[in-house]
Amino acid sequence: MRPFTYQRVATAAEAAAAVAGNPGAKFLAGGTNLLDLMKLEIERPAHLVDVQDIEGLGTIEQAEDGGLRIGALVTNTTLAANERVRRDYGVLTRAIVAGASGQLRNKATTAGNLLQRTRCPYFYDPNLPCNKRNPGSGCAALEGYSRQLAVIGSSDKCIATYPGDMAIAMRVLDATVETVQPDGTTRAIPFAEFHRLPGDEPERDNVLAHGELITAVTLPRPLGGKHFYQKVRDRASYAYALVSVAAVIQPDGTGRVAFGGVAHKPWRVEAAEAALPQGAAAVTAQVFADARPTEHNRFKLPLATRALAGVLAEAKG
Amino acid sequence: MLAGSGAAVALTQAPGVQAQGSSGGAATPPTMPVSFTVNGKEAELTLDTRVTLLDALREHLELTGSKKGCDHGQCGACTVMVNGTRINSCLSLAVQHQGDEITTIEGLGTPDNLHPMQAAFVKHDGYQCGYCTPGQICSAVATLAEIRAGIPSHVQDDITAAPAFSAAELRERMSGNICRCGAYSNIVDAITEVAGA
Fold this sequence. Notes:
Chain A: It holds the Pfam family CO_deh_flav_C. The complex is a heterodimer. By secondary structure, chain A is of the alpha+beta class.
């Protein structure tokens, strides 16, 4: 690990300014992903701004519009266990408890979870080229072992996936990411626009500016319906998704669905949701119409259809 | 990482070496003071900022019960409780824990007065080589507390209901603790006995 200086801050504005004014600085919250990457020297911050003392970021509150406001520092465990989340946003609890381990969920924060980096094995191996880790160096995954990697939305520069579960549920719930920018102003980013596709800049996972701090994630009013998070993985627990399905299905068979493990961001095609009453294949034919899988991960396409079919069968039951 | 730990030891033996505000040159890695409570005892240290909570416990406080397995949060051998909650101490910087109350395996019981979970692991042979055991036991104690507190899990059919102390729940909730010797079934038996006590 490279040496770094460390600072604690009391306010979001102070945190944003401290990082914005230092090109080598990064925010530190739970640290479960950042420290892992720092040990491998994939992340090499010269300065860490620890945000754990900032007041008001650790609570879950009712929002004025009947929705929910989740502070950036709320841990995965606290969010999953929240009574209102379990009752009204079950897909979110389901997604969170499908990810990581108990120890990690106790430390990982809401904001940090959104910012976790890909688990592409080539990103994690500093001996190999990776445009996300080292822009311009090439992508070893394109001709490599790509079983876990993206089947849609990828580019010739990067076929990494976003690895998280929580964000797939937030995408289905139409969440909003609230931030404080370095100049002290705030902005609200619709969840669909938060994570990026790799394009020509795979090193940029999301639309945040350097020094822009997530303060909260807000959820609109509850949708009702039945909530599902179906995760298919190589182990029964503590493994990343090969494919996951976050869905909210109403009694009349309409609903919403987003997929994880398939793209550089949570993958949702709203126009395809009208086909939900016709069954899974009708939906995934549209959701994955532009898919360009590799020979290793082509299996994800029928797997996504079957995972959604399982969800729809359970919704009827 | 090994080189980093070595530098950290050297620096703590020369208190007053401070390089805060530097960009982190190789000559003088930045250090910081930090104080927290470990097993009820106050600890005050000046550490290289890179020192993890695990290395602070093992290398600076000589509490070697918590183990370094993978050092990446994958194996759970480093599991300790911070303010009553289990975490991977390898994925946490010591300086993040100013003022925290930390409990390690050494704080749960002693050879003459075992914690019930320690006694149950002995009774049910919940280990072979024993390297993962301190992490398993800390995690198991915290797991039972999490079930009692109603923290939901992936294997619950109804996430609005109170979770059960079933084998399926224990296996899911303990999935962050790897046992290379494969003592899992005996570990589940040990935890089940304590859960029912």
